[in-house]
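ok so I'm stuck.
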Amino acid sequence: MAKLFPHLPFVDHETPMSWAGRLAAFHTHGPVLPFLNDLSIPMKDLAGGVHGAVERLCDMANQDPEPVLRNAMRRRGDRRIDLRGEKVSAEFLTGLVTRFCPLCLLDDEKEHERPQVTHRHRWTWMLQPVRTCPLHELALVERREGVWTDFAHELAVIVPEVGAQLLQISKAQEVREPSPLQGYAVERLEGQGGPSWLDQQSLEQAVRATEVLGAVIAFGSDAKASDVTSDGWDAAGRVAWPFVCRGETGVRDALGLIGGASPSAKGGKPLRVRDFGMLYAWLSAPKLTKDPGPIRDVLRDHLVNTTDVMAGTKVLGKDITEPRLSSITSLARSEKVHHLTLRKVLISRKLIPADAEERSCSMTLVNYKVGRDLAAAMNRAVAFTALPEALNASRPMCGSACNFDPCIGVIGVQK
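replied:
not stuck anymore, here's the structure
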C-alpha cells in the first residue's frame, strides 16, 4: 500500500482530526473531507475515535498509532465516550463548538510557512471544563460555523485567521489563570490524582458536582443552569473548589452557606427548592439518566438534618421514615393532629419558645421524634368532660386521679 510522503508527524497534544486536517493541507492544499474520502476513511469514524479509522490513517501516514489513539475520543452507544480510560457523556465535550487559543495557533505558525499545516487543535480544548489556555493564561475563544462539519473542528475552516489577525483576536480575550477544576480534569486524564473525594467519583461526576454547587453559591438559588454562560461555569468551578477539596466536610459547609439565609426573607417555594435552586433541581429530576455521584447523598443528609421533612416523603430518591426535623405543619399532617393545637402544646411544654405563636407553623421546626411522641399523646388524650362517662366515675374522682393538660385534656391516669 502506498504511503503518504513526505512524513508529517502527529503531535502529542492534538486530536486525530487535527492531524488529519494538517495532513490534508500538507499533501493536497485542500480541506480534510475529500482527503479522507480519497483514503476511504469516513470522517465521522475518525472524529468518533473508531480504531479502524485511526489505524488506517496512521498506516497511510507511516505513524505509530499509539499516541494518536490515546487522544482519540471513542464514541459508544447512548452518547457515551471513552477518553483515556474515563467514560464520559457527550455533554462533557464541547460538541459542535470549537475552542482555541489564538496565541497557541500563532506559536504553531513558527514551524511552517503555511499555517494550515501547523495549526493544531489541542485535545484538551474539547473538554467542557477547559476554558482557559494554561500557557498564555487567556480565555479560550469559542466558535461554531453552523454547518454539518462542525463536529470535525477543522481549524482551517473555523479559524481562517493567521498572524496579526490572531494577535488581534487575543487582545479581546480575558486574561486569567486556569481554574483549579480545569487543572484537576486535565491532570486526571493524564494519570495524576487529586482530592480524594473527587477521585472516588467519575471525572464527569466530580466536575458537574463542583460546577453546579459553585453556581448556586455564586449566582444564587434563582439562577437557572440554562442561563449560565461558559465563563459563568468557569467562575462557578473556582468558587466551589475550596469546598470540594475538603471532601464531604467542605461540601456540607458549602450547603450550610447556601441554606443560611433567613427562610422568611424568601418566596413561597419549599425550602429545599428555593434555597438550593439548580442543585436540588438537578439532583431531584425524575428523569435523571446519569448517576450524579455522592453529591446527592450529601445534599439529602443535609436536608434531612437541617430542614423540614415530613415523615414518609421521598427526598432525592430515598424514602425518609424518621427525619431529624419537621415543621409543625408537617408533623400535624403526618400524625393527624391539628397544627394550631400541636403548636400550643409544644409551647406549654416549653419545647419551642412562646413567640413561635407569632410565626407560621410551617416555618417552625421541631425535633421529629419529640413532636411525634407528643402528637401520639394528643391522639390518646380524652376530653376531661368525657372522662366520668369513660371511667364510670364521678368528676371529683376523675380530677384527683388524672394528669390534665389544659390544651389537650387528660393525658394520663394515676394508678
